[in-house]
Amino acid sequence: MESKGQSANSGDCVFKKRNDSSSAVDPDSSHSVIFDIVVVAWFECTATIDDVLRGSTWYYISYGRCHSKATKGANSMMCTNKKCKKSEVTGVPEYIAKVFVYDKSEQAAFVILGDDGRELTGKHAIELVANYLESNECVGADGVVPVPQALMETIGQTRRFIVKVSEHNLTGKSQSITVTKVLPSEQP
Length: 188
Known about the structure:
This protein has helices at 115-121, 125-135, 149-152, 167-171; strands spanning 7-10, 13-17, 22-25, 32-35, 40-52, 59-63, 70-72, 77-79, 91-102, 107-113, 158-166, 177-182. The protein is mainly β.
């Protein structure tokens, strides 16, 4: 393991870790065990978008100020962020799209959130949702606005991503990696 603050190159990715070790008591003995834990790691990866998850929600309704999920209350939208505590908010669509990517040796599922979706598609989620609702009388029978063409057109693009990996990403239900930044395309 690298020491705190150092990085190591691994193919197309640069690995930087935040925590490097911790200790715990081994329940089967009376002494402490030192072991390495990576709490959060960031990678810079160059990957090609292979597909976009369809038939699932690609956006969520957020409170525009803190970008936390907004839910319907009795008379208005409410922010779900406990620190925010706003009970009357205006909901704004934000990206939460899942894309499948690959590089020279691996495949992964990335979750694109908020402004990173705009960086990827060139369009805000609110614009895409509004365009769909203007062109169609209502959302689909399942209540889902279909994945927009702008997101589908990212298939085949090779982009640089900064991704965050934590234990949740590797052991959670979705087994996907969170994109924290989509870097601008390099122009030839």
